[in-house]
């Protein structure tokens, strides 16, 4: 039976490294929002925080942190989705983004826009999300897209965490504590079809649980026959 089912990407057993992240705020479009990702080598939690400004761009605004590497590639094709663990939150709406394409920068140094795959979430306190690939929606500059190619899971190029103003729907200081981001396979694949996995993923609990021995089910069924 294959042992790998949980791939730490950021945080968790793989410590947070702030240098792997960089800001991508609306200041690239003339806005005034700003964000940071604060953590140390010993941190169990990375804090995405800053100020979301809606005055400069007339109600629009966004702040985000994204992976800094331009040549990073993650093959997540053997997994079923992303596990996102939140430590604390402020009740605002956030977005997890993935990209499978990064284009060369424009002559002025600005990045060219490409498709993003987004999942919106509004956590209240410590929360764990399991985000299936189908839960990510394709967008271009924040607008939903239809008829596009699926996310290339063999070639994920970028991760990001974003907060948007939604044209005045939210603004001001924000703070989101992130424990970890990992790729998760919800079923342990079998090398032999007749084998029974020792544990399985319980979606209600959001965790792997031990499967009871076969004799236990036989014993309890016999009790019910009395």
TrEMBL record:
Ranges for domain NADH:ubiquinone oxidoreductase intermediate-associated protein: 17-178
Gene Ontology biological process terms, A to Z: NADH dehydrogenase complex assembly
InterPro entries per record: Galactose-bd-like_sf, NADH-UbQ_OxRdtase-assoc_prot30, NDUFAF1
SUPFAM superfamilies assigned: Galactose-binding domain-like
A family per Pfam: CIA30
Highest taxon listed in the record's lineage: Eukaryota
GO molecular function: unfolded protein binding
Membership in a protein family: Belongs to the CIA30 family.
Protein's recorded name: NADH:ubiquinone oxidoreductase intermediate-associated protein 30 domain-containing protein
Organism: Penicillium chermesinum
């Amino acid at each position: 039976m294959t042992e790998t089912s949980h791939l730490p990407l950021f945080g968790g057993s793989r410590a947070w490294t702030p240098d792997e992240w960089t800001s991508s705020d609306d200041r690239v479009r003339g806005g005034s929002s700003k964000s940071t990702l604060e953590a140390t080598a010993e941190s169990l939690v990375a804090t995405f925080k800053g100020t979301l400004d809606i005055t400069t761009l007339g109600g629009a605004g966004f702040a985000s942190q994204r992976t800094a590497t331009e040549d990073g590639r993650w093959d997540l094709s053997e997994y079923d989705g992303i596990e996102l663990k939140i430590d604390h939150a402020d009740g605002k709406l956030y977005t997890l983004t993935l990209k499978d394409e990064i284009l060369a920068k424009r002559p002025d140094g600005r990045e060219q826009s490409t498709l993003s795959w987004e999942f919106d979430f509004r956590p209240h306190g410590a929360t764990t999300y399991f985000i299936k690939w189908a839960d990510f929606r394709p967008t271009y500059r924040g607008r939903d897209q239809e008829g596009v190619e699926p996310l290339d899971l063999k070639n994920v190029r970028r991760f990001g965490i974003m907060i948007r103003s939604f044209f005045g729907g939210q603004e001001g200081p924000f703070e989101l504590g992130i424990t970890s981001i990992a790729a998760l396979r919800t079923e342990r694949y079998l090398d032999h079809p007749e084998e029974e996995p020792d544990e399985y993923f319980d979606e209600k609990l959001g965790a792997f649980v031990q499967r009871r021995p076969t004799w236990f089910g036989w014993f309890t069924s016999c009790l019910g026959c009395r």
